[in-house]
Amino acid sequence: MSLPFSEDLEALEILSFDTCKTLTRLERVRTLPRLRALRACMTALDFEDLWDQGLPQSLRKVAFYTGKTKANDEVRGKIEQKGYEFADNYSADSTTANLFRQYYGHGVY
């Protein structure tokens, strides 16, 4: 399943996908001018495809979890190398966990 976005969603600040195993592609995420946090956990998204499409300049925090420790470690390195804050999925003190808690009333699990 592919999920396309457009600049019409100009107020969207947070994207979070958890256990969406049929989600294979996010399209035109770069068109979301206010996106600050992106979280994908246990999806079929291809991390490299997401980066190749480009991300908005407003993006600061990223969490991307595959369910495989080695793959997660590789992705984390790439996220940090590109200058984004990696969100520790399991830490109650995580900045992204706090951001999600602020908006949704619960942490990132």
Summarize the topology.
Layout (H helix, E strand, L loop, with lengths): L1 E3 L9 E5 L6 E3 L9 E5 L5 H7 L7 E5 L3 H13 L3 E2 L8 H10 L5
Parallel strand pairs: 1-3, 2-4, 4-5, 5-6
Q: What's the β-strand tally?
A: 6
Radius of gyration: 13 Å
Q: Which strands sit side by side, in order, in the main sheet?
A: 2-4-5-6
Q: Helicity level, as a percent range?
A: 25-40%
The computed structural class is alpha/beta
Using the alpha-carbon principal axes, give the shape.
globular
Contiguous low-pLDDT stretches (5 residues minimum) are none
Determine the strand fraction and express it as a percent band. Answer: 15-25%
Number of helices: 3
Mean model confidence by pLDDT: 83
How many domains make up the coordinates?
A: 1
**Helices and strands, in N-to-C order?**
EEEEHEHEH
Note the gap between the termini. Answer: 23 Å
Question: How would you sum up the major sheet?
Answer: 4 strands, parallel
In short:
By secondary structure, this protein is an alpha/beta fold.
For this entry, give a set of tags.
109 residues; alpha/beta; 4-stranded parallel beta sheet; two-stranded parallel ribbon
What does this molecule look like?
By secondary structure, the protein is α/β, with parallel strands linked by helices. It has one domain (2-104). Helix content is 28%, strand content 21%. The chain contains three helices and six strands; from the N terminus they run ββββαβαβα. The chain has helices at 47-53, 69-81, 95-104; strands at residues 2-4, 14-18, 25-27, 37-41, 61-65, 85-86. The strands form two sheets. The chain has a four-stranded parallel β-sheet with strand order 2-4-5-6. It has a two-stranded parallel sheet with strand order 1-3. The longest helix has 13 residues, at 69-81. The radius of gyration is 13 Å and the shape is globular. The protein starts with a strand and ends in a 5-residue tail after the last helix.
